[in-house]
Amino acid sequence: xxxxxxxxxxxxxxxxxxxxxxxxxxxxxxxxxxxxxxxxxxxxxxxxxxxxxxxxxxxxxxxxxxxxxxxxxxxxxxxxxxxxxxxxxxxxxxxxxxxxxxxxxxxxxxxxxxxxxxxxxxxxxxxxxxxxxx
Length: 134
Prior knowledge:
Elements lengths: L3 E5 L3 H13 L3 E5 L2 H11 L3 E4 L8 H10 L8 E5 L1 H5 L3 H11 L10 E4 L4 H12 L1
Helix pairs in contact: 2-3
């Protein structure tokens, strides 16, 4: 049975692109347009992996990541952040999450399993997805 990957992103073009790449590699996909829907679908669908945008209306990716990691039934689902925030803000998310995970035991819980920059390189994405799902 193929692994199920949930894409949480408010940009329909990004969702279509990611979904196409993942389906071409044999994965099933589901999607949610924002963090609130993402949390609902994560609970009902229990995906094997979540690709999560950082900046979204209603509930940000960071807020959803926090909710997922605090929920006993969802905290084991790996999360890959898919974002263009570094290009827009100059913030290096990978370094940010590494610093937060070394800052204290509890803050390490917030760290996603990976970060992919937009525009997404399909090869890099698939390499990370396969690594995380091993």
